[in-house]
Each structure stands twice: as structure tokens, then as C-alpha cells.
Structures
1.
Amino acid sequence: MDAQLRRRNRRLAWVLGVVAVLVALASAAFWMRIGEAIS
Amino acid sequence: MSTTAIAIEQEHHHHGRPRGWQRWLFSTNHKDIGTMYLVFAFTMLFMGGASAMVVRAELFMPGLQLVDPDLYNNLITNHALIMIFGAVMPAAAGMANWMIPLMIGAPDMALPRMNNLSFWLLPAAALLMTLSFVVPFFPGGGSQINTGWTLYPPLSLQVGMSMDFLIFSLHLLGISSVLASINIIVTLLNMRAPGMTLMKLPIFCWAWLVTAFLLILVIPVLAGGITMLLFDRHFGTSFFTAAGGGDPVLFQHLFWFFGHPEVYILLLPAFGILAHVIPTFARKPLFGYRVIVGALLGIAAIGMLVWAHHQYTIGMSLAAVTFFMMGTILISIPVGLIVFSYIATMWRGSMTFETPMLFAVGILIMFTFGGLSGIMLAVVPADMQYHDSMFVVAHFHYVLLPGALFGLYAGVFYWLPKWTGHMYDERLGKLFFWINVIGFNVTFFPQHFLGLAGMPRRIADYNAMFAEFNMVSSIGAFVFGLSHLLLLYIVVSTVRGGVRADDKAWEGARGLEWQLSSPPPFHSWSKAPEVA
């Protein structure tokens, strides 16, 4: 694996990891409102 | 897929190949990590199966014979979580590790060290989950986890310390799944061989790409939910405590926002496997490649919007239940497109029925049956009757055993010659299929009648009127369970020896993976093939 590909892999992995963490953080606040709205 | 690979010449690297236990503990090789995933999943399959055997032994006749009601529900919780997180998901991840780099012409997964971490989190999680099961048996260990896999509060707030072990175990399993998903997405997007565009990607890879995105979007929601549960249990918050202004139903929304897509997370990789098995043994190209890719994306998109069909009885507004009912029924369209594409692939093919193909055809019939009872359950007024009955247990086992587990069996038999370099014993493979399928149907078919007659799920004792069907179901379960000893024998004997497999083990097989030797060299595709 060349260095450029390795950098691209790491960059995409970090983006996906940040998305996962944001989903976890957002879920509590977001779902409380959705839960109230539809129940 | 019509691909022509050139430049398959392999460079054999003999440097840096670890030996002994270090080969496994520090492994960054996708095939070794795939093997470890598969061995782990197989071990967990037996543990989860043992729980199910005790459950069916208890239900063999009315009254309480073997276990008390709390332990019965602990076994059910344990069975579900082990099968989902310990057996099916790791087995699918193992196959992804083994096959994705071979299929796309990549030398390894994109992030090999993270791959190692993803796997080695699993044994730690399994240890915590086992502790959550056994801790209540010790003095001061608190009560059993009697919530089922859904962990609904307020019951889960009242369980003893074993619930904390379980929550930490689920956190580790979630981290492992997210890391594995990131690795798979990066591998599929960045590491494909020259010429392999996304629309030339093998369907197994597409199925895993969709599954990996699903995992990244829903596992963190489960993590958020169980973290809030942990806070309610120990840090005085009231997210789910009605007395403190919280709402227990909120947990149900959080759980099922993860839980329903989880069903597709289990199913899609197996659907992907069938897209390779069926064309091979029908000796025809796959029918409807683009339709299948679209259907996989459609299943994922709609599957994330229908979570509350598990909660019809909580008292949602009419508009809400109508939305969830329509959405749920709508999923049958992309699922049906995939099933019809597979049937069309078989149409007028030169079919032979080796073990993987037997499983593939069996899956199409039995999974469709489970899908039909799913449409019954999607209809709100009908579901009010079926809810929490054995009908639901029959339904989801008809979906998940053929849809996920049998799909994985098809994959094991299909790829075992590639993995080991040996052909398995076809006679024993077919015997395993028939015992397995007969055992499965004898176990779960009667449970439809039990549910329709009113037998509730998750209760250890039952009215004498349900005795006959329960006895039949238990006998089927013992046959089904024991048949896995035969699978173990077949796999072990194939690993140890047998007739040598050709590089292209199946006459009708297509794809890059069949151009490598069986088993593939330790460093596969060190020189990328070009795909025409």
C-alpha cells in the first residue's frame, strides 16, 4: 500500500468514525423529541 | 459479473509472517482474522444453541421441570444476544474479511491493525456477556437478566449488577462492529483493483457495503440508549423513569431504531452470498444485478424508517401506526425483487444441487414463508392479536434462520474449498442440510399454531392445551441442535484433509477469488489484477 492510499484510507476512516460518534451523541436529544411526538 | 483478470502472478512474500500464537494474537492478515471470526462465531453458535436447548427442554411439557421462570428468561436473553452479536454478526464479518479482499483484488483490508482490534474486542465482550449470565448464581450477584434481548425499562432498571456487565459487553460489541464496518467501507471504496467500478462490485461486497453503513448509523443509537440506561441505573438520571419525569417508551424507540435495521444487518450479507451461490450452480449469470443493488439500498433506506412496528401496542397515534404499517409492508417490494431475481437466475439454468445450492433454494422457500407471516404482523389490528405470542417467535425464526444462518451455511459450504484447499464430503453436507431443515421446520412450524391459539412467549409454563405442539417443537429443536455436531465434524474433517480442491472449486463459479489458489497464498493479490 503506498503512502497516499494509506492517507486516503485513514482520512475516510476518521470521517466515518466521527459520523458514528455524532450519531451516538445526537440520538439521545433527537429521539427524545421524536419519541414525545409520536407516542 | 463478467470479469477477466490478468496479471494474477503472485509474489510470494515469506518475510514478516509470524508463527505460533503470535500469528493469531497480532494478526493483521485478513484471512487469519477472518478465520478467527469464523471460529469465534462457531463457538458462540454452540453456546447460544445450548441455551435454546435448555429452553426447549423446559417447554417439552407443561409445568416447571428444569429452570425457574427468572432463569428461563435469562436463558432467552442470553440465547438471543449470543446468536445475534456472537454468532451471526461475527460469522458474516469473518466471511467479509476472508472474501472481500479476494473478490475486489485488494492485498488486504484497508486498515489491518484496526481489523485486529475489531476481532479481539469480541472475546472480551463474550467474557462480559458470560459473566452477566453467571453472576446471579453467586452470593450477592443480584437478580437474573429477565428482560429478554430488548432490555426494556423499568425491568432493566431493577435487574442486579449482571445488567451492567451486559451493557458493557454490548458497548464492546458495538465498538467492534463499528470499527469493522469502517474498515469494510474504506476497503470497498478505496482498495478495489483497477477497472473494478462500483457497478462491477460482486453482490456480496455490495451487500456488505450497505450493511456496514447501516451498522454505522444504528449501532451508535443503541450505544446511546444503553448508556442512558446505565445512567438511570447508577447516576440518578431519569431518562426512562416515569417517576422522575422520564419515559420508558423512549427506550423502546431508541432500541428498535437499532433493533429493526439489525434484522437487515443480519440478512443482507446472507442475501449477498446467495447472489454467488445461485449463479454458480445454475450455471447462468446473475439476473438483475442493478435491480439487486437498488433493492439492497431500498431495504436499508425503508428498513430505517419502520422501527415502531415492534411497538404497535404502546398506544401511538393512528397516523403514526398507519405510517409504520405502510412502510413495513412496502419493504416486501425490494425483498421480493431480490427473491425474484434469484428465481429468474435459476430459470432454465443447468442446475445441480450441491449443498450450498440446497441451502440457497431452501432459503428462498422458507425465508419467503417468514416474510409472509411478517406481512401478517405488519397489519396493526392483526398484530394486536399476535403481539407477544409464540406466533412472533415462529415468524422471526423463519426469517432469521433461513435468511441469516442458512445463508451463512451456504457460504461456508461454498467457500470451504477455497478457504481450506479441500473439498468437503458432499454426502455428509447433503445429510446435514436435510436433518437441519427438517429439524428447523418441525421446531418452528408448530409455534405458529401455538401463537394463534394464544400461547404467550417468554413464559416458562403453559396451559395443558398447548402440550402436544410444544412436545413436537422440542423434539424438532433437539434434532436441529444435534445436527450441528455433524456440521462441526464436516468442517473439522475438511480443514484437516480430504480431496484437493481446484483453484476454481465449482465449475460455474465466476469472480476474481476463484483465480487464486485454494487455499490462497498468505499474501493474496500482492500485485493488483486488472478487471476488464
2.
Amino acid sequence: MVTQSEFAIEARNLTKQFGELTAVNHLDLDVPRARIYGFLGPNGSGKSTTIRMLCGLLTPSEGRANVLGVDVPGDANKLKPKIGYMTQKFSLYGDLTVRENLDFIADVYMYSRTEKYSRIAELLDKYDLINQEHQFAGTMSGGQKQRLALACAVLHKPELLLLDEPTSAVDPKSRRDFWARLFELADQGTTILVSTHYMDEAERCHRLAILDHGVKVADGSPKDLQAATGMSIVEVLADDPYTAQVVIEKEPEVVSVTQLGIRLRVLIPVKFTNPLKIIVDSLARNGITASTEIVAASLEDVFVAVTQENNAMEPVN
Amino acid sequence: MRKELRQLRRDRITFAMIVGIPIGQILLFGYAINTDVRNLKSAVANQANTHLSRQFIAELSETQVLDFRYAVDTPQELEKLLRSGRISVGVHIPVDFDRRTIDARRAAAHLLVDGADPTIVGIANQLAMMPVGFDTTRSNPMRSLEVRPYYNPERRTAVNIVPGLIGIILTLTMMLFTAVAIVRERERGNLELLINTPVSTAQLMIGKIVPYIAIGLLQLALIVGVGRLLFDVPLQGTMAELYIASSVFIAANLALGLFISTVAQTQFQAIQVTIFFLLPSILLSGFMFPFDGMPVFAQYLGEILPNTHFIRLTRGIMLRDASLIELGNELLVLAVITIIAMTGATLRFSRRLD
């Protein structure tokens, strides 16, 4: 084997084109071992395509990747026993019961009878599926399906877990439980690559990359990213947030205005030294009363800042 | 309505089917439906070996109804050829042929006919009216040849149809099972997960075939059982022989179905391709029309269909008590078709999504 790299995944220049469309554009990626690494990006930003390239399902148009010391897609077959993959769409058999599904996956990984029996019992217990053991997978709730899918993905104790939007069809409580399980797996040494479009999930990752139109626009820990937005955030509390938004959006310095309840979050690049004054003056000129204050950047601000029309933002790292 | 047409236009296989099914099938029908059967495979046992008998054989040959492939010495050898399916008609000319031609009470020669197919018996009966000898002016043409239909003396259609029907039913059900098997998993997303596991393509293919062979054999038992109970279809050979022949045939169809499954993009397309394949299996396999009667081109097409070979096998085993060794060629062809289709399916099956 090659020397154990500190990274589970190293990708350089990874590019995938579908005809005219460049789904993933010269992506460099370093995913440290035993960490949860997030892919944050809107739909169509290239998250799924990247994950599929990393597990050898898609051939990159350009670039290369080394996953767990294996070159993909060249040696992808050597990689298969070491990775667990959870597809965006539920991909187990709806007309098999929970146990039958687990049984099938265990057979696929060539578990012996006794190993299989104890491993399935362990998983049923751990993933809270005991009561559903004999239920058809197709008739289960989103949360239950997701637990089953995760149980199947980790059945063979993979070193690397690739999860493609695992929580898109799941309620908030199930999502919280799901993440608790991911942390447990990471603690035990599993590397996890998870794509999401939920901010709160991205915030939990040890490290994350923000993708936009196939380009990595930011990469770092959530804290670093928040610290390095390159934006000042002004929070505006106005009686009439709609009018206030219309007015503020007209200011040339303002990059974006997002309404959150009755508050507005205004992003202004840090090169403008007095962001508060810009907003206060603007509101005053238009006779709108509102309270304003500078606040710390949230991950959502980061996301808005980096995906906002390529306004000369330096990729932070 | 416009939406339907737009979707249809984008589904290339369906679009090809819209044009391909009518054109392909009308050509097949046109070629296969031919009641004016010629060139029946035949053999002659000329025990008289006189000038007259040789001339008679030449005359028979000139009608182009019979195509003499073999010349043997005894009627027993004719029966053997008949049983193995290598000929459908045998002409036996007895030693006293010359004397018989002038004796109005006795038939001058015998036509040994594979009676399984009533069409062929009909043709043989027409042939039997042919005058023999030089006295062609005889006012009252009589039967100069005696027709001896083997294997189905009562000329019941069911006896001929049921063995062939086994092939048709198995072709349809077996091919459909596997044709949709991989496409269905692809549509449901199961495949994306499966190809990310260490399962090899060969394991996947075998897993898709083996269970269905059992189902196919169950169907076989049902058809043979009902055929015997209700229609009194004989089973001259042994059930074991029938099962061996059927297993190979079922495997061939399953493999072809798998191949379809790797080509088709949707289950709907897979079903269409299967139907496209089924029609020639009915028309060109010798099930509906005698194989020998079809034009050479159609015969070549028929030879690549598993059902053609299987019908020869079932008719041989069930009606003529032919042994698998006598029918070995047909088994071999089926095995070759299976291997080619399996290899094709395995090669075409991509473990990638692009």
C-alpha cells in the first residue's frame, strides 16, 4: 500500500463536463481523515457530480483524485470495499423488509452467516430499527428510510462514507439524530463527506467547501469562513422591512440584502470603512426609521457572500 | 397531445419501434406466410434401383417440393433421419417397385412423413396423386404413393402446437423477466448503490438469471401437464430430456433478456424490444409455418432465434422420442446463443453512470 496520507481524499483539478455544461470546474479538494467534511451549495452546484467522481461512478473529464490511497476512476474497484455510499434518492429495495435489505447488503459484502447475524442485530439496535425489522422499506417514513440507508452504508464498516444530501427528506429531529450518529462514526475514525444545502448542517462540519456552479468558492472550517467573509454585516430592524429593503438595495456599496423575519441582513464589502453610516444615511434620506447594528457573520452570510455574482471576492482560505 | 409527441420524439428506441415494428413485421409475415411449401428436407431409400425408380425419383425432385438431402439403403434409416429431425419426408421405394407400378391395387412406393406438422402431411397427400410410370394417360389417376404419417397419425393440431407453444411462452416470460431486471433497478436507483459495492458484474448477471431458470422450469411443467391432461399431447421422450433441453433454452432467453436490459434505458423500452423479438420467434421459428417452406433469407433469420432450435428439440423429444444426442446440434446452438448474449450483456453493463 502507499503511505497513509493524512488526507482521505485528495483531488486535483477535478473537472466534469456534460456536453456544454461544466458541472464541476477544476476542483481541488483535501479531505482530512476521521473528519466530517461538508459540501455546501445550491442545487446544480456540482455536489453530487463530485461525489460520484470520487467513488468512481463518473469519469472525470480532467484532473485526478486519490481516495484512500486508490486512484479513481482507474482502480475504483479496489476502492469499493472501503467506501460506503448513500445516494440522494432512497436506493434500497422498497419491496423488501428492513431485515431483508440488510441481509442482502451483508451478502453483497460476503459476510459469513454468523458475522451477518450479529452485525445486523447490532445495526438494528443502533439505528433504532428494531420495531421496523419486518416492515417493508417502501412503507417507512423518511427518517426511518434514512436510518436504514445509513445502516446499509456502514454495514461493512467503511473507512470513508460518502453521503449525498442525506437529510433532504427528513424532519428536523431526525436530522439532529442523524448528525449525532455521524459524529459518533467520525470519532471512531470514519471519514465522512457529506453534501447539503442546509446551513445548520454545514455549520456542524469540521471543515467545509462551498460550491457554486461547479467552482469551489470557499474552503475552510465554518469559523474561519465566517471570520473571513470579507463583508461587514449590518442588521437593520425596520417597521417596514420591505420598503427599507428596496431603499437599501439601491445603494451601490451593498452586495446583498436578505430578509430574516422582520430583520434585514445587509452585506457590504469590508473595503468600505463605515458600513453603518452608508445604511443609516440611506434610510434617513428616505425617511425610514430603523435601528441598525453591526453583527458577526453567520454561515449563511458567508454563503451569500461567496455565491453572490462574482464580485471580485477573493476565495477565502 | 403535443407533449406526448415531444416526449415520444426524444425516446429514440420508442421512435425506432414505431417505424421498425410495422416494417419489420410485415416483411417477416410476407416471407413466412407461404402455404406453397417447397424444398422439404427429404431422403430416399431406393431399394429397387431400377431405371424406372430412378426416373421416378428424378420426377419427384423436379416438382421442387422435395429436396433430397440423403440417399440411404433401408426404410429403417429413413425413420432414423425422420426422428432426428434432419428430414421431414422420406421416400421408400420397395424392391418390387416396377411391378407395383402396374398393379393398381398396391401403392408403388411409400412416403414416410413427419406427421407432427399437418401442413407437411397435406403436401405429402398432394404429392401422392402424382402419376407413376409411363402410362400418364390413365384416365383415372390413383394414388401411386402411400402416405404414412408418423408421430401424429390422427393429425391433431394440438400435438403440433403444444410443443411449440412451450417455446413461445418461455420466450415471452423469460425474456421479459430479465429484460426489465436491470433497467428497473436503474430506474429505481438501486443500481447506483449496487455498483458501488464490491459485487462483480458476473455475480450480478448470474444472480439475475439463476432464480428465473427455476421459474421457467415450473412453467414448463405446467404447460406439459395441462397439454397432457386436456389435449392428450404425448410425451414420447423422458421428462429429464425435456428439462435439460428447456434449461438451456431458458438460459438463452434470460441471457438475451439481460442483454436487452443493458441496452434499454427504461422498462417501457425493454418491453418493446422484447415484443419486437417475440414476433419473429412465433412466425419464423417453424411454429406457425413449416420452416422448410420459408425463403432462405427467412430461414437464416430463423436459425438465430433460440425458439427455432427449441421447437425442434421439443417436437423431437415429445413427439418422436428423439434422444438428446440425435438433437445435439440444436442444444449446441442454444448454448452458443446463451454464451454470446451473456458476454454481450456483461461487456455492455457499465459500472459507471456516464
